[in-house]
């Protein structure tokens, strides 16, 4: 696999062949970057985890390029299709439901296949909005070092074990969680990492964006249990 820092491209220029991993807005559509818009307008093919959500984004920006789904339950077939298109010299832009692909979606499988097969296909990141960096930027905590834990296991036992392993980490911990498990996660954090402050970001960049501060050991203030959550767990010193 080749990575390439390609020069800035405008919508009037031909798009070089390769796989473009494009970040899309996590809420506010105005957060999309000019590079991503150029790529979406110029690509031979756009592949998406969910074509319905991607279709809404493309419609908003009046983009009508070819759109195809890349689904987890058809990962093998969709991977082979994408590899054939890339081998034929096509440019493919991959987008996820929101944010940066490759974090918790199937494009990582496609990139891994490109690497393992040693294909001469450029893989180009097109960075953009990120709930993790947005939350860190308003935390008031030094983010160096920090660790991105993503979504922990939905099973309480495995989730608690992961949190216990984080006790020794002297840095900021970033966790994503759904509305269905946010209360259980916060209770376990306050029990297992009781000497650390917590900052919960809800619906970041959206109309009902909210940041909830929780002191070490609690209590948990009242907040709306709706939307998507980014949970930051600070160092023990961050709570002083």
UniProtKB/TrEMBL annotation:
A cellular component term, taken from the record's GO annotations: cytoplasm
Major localization listed first in the record, in broad terms: cytoplasm
Enzyme Commission number(s): 2.1.1.198
Domain Tetrapyrrole methylase: 19-213
Top-rank taxon: Bacteria
Cell compartment(s), UniProt: Cytoplasm
Keywords: Cytoplasm, Methyltransferase, rRNA processing, S-adenosyl-L-methionine, Transferase
Record-level Gene Ontology MF annotations: rRNA (cytosine-2'-O-)-methyltransferase activity
Residues that span the membrane, as ranges: none
Pfam families: TP_methylase (PF00590)
Enzyme class at the top of the EC tree: transferase
Catalytic activity: cytidine(1402) in 16S rRNA + S-adenosyl-L-methionine = 2'-O-methylcytidine(1402) in 16S rRNA + S-adenosyl-L-homocysteine + H(+)
Keyword Cell cycle found: no
Similarity comment text for this entry: Belongs to the methyltransferase superfamily. RsmI family.
Function, as annotated: Catalyzes the 2'-O-methylation of the ribose of cytidine 1402 (C1402) in 16S rRNA.
NCBIfam families in UniProt: 16S rRNA (cytidine(1402)-2'-O)-methyltransferase (TIGR00096)
Protein name: Ribosomal RNA small subunit methyltransferase I
Gene coding for it: rsmI
């Amino acid at each position: 696999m080749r990575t390439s820092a390609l020069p800035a491209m405008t919508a009037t220029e031909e798009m070089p062949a390769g796989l473009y991993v494009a970040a899309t807005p996590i809420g506010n559509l105005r957060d999309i970057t000019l590079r991503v818009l150029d790529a979406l307008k110029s690509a031979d093919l756009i592949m998406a985890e969910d074509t319905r959500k991607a279709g809404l984004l493309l419609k908003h920006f009046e983009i009508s390029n070819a759109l195809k789904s890349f689904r987890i339950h058809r990962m093998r077939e969709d991977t082979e299709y994408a590899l054939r298109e890339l081998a034929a010299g096509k440019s493919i832009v991959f987008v996820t439901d929101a944010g940066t692909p490759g974090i918790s979606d199937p494009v990582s499988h496609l990139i891994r296949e490109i690497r393992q097969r040693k294909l001469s296909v450029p893989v180009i990141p097109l960075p953009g909005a990120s709930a993790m960096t947005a939350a860190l930027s308003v935390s008031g905590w030094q983010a160096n070092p920090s660790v991105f834990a993503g979504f922990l296991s939905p099973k309480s036992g495995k989730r608690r074990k992961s949190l216990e392993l984080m006790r020794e980490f002297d840095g900021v911990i970033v966790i994503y969680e759904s509305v269905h498990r946010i209360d259980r996660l916060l209770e376990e954090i306050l029990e297992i990492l009781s000497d650390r402050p917590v900052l919960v970001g809800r619906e970041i960049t959206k109309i009902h964006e909210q940041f909830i501060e929780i002191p070490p050991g609690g209590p948990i203030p009242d907040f709306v249990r709706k939307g998507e959550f980014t949970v930051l767990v600070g160092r023990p010193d961050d709570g002083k």
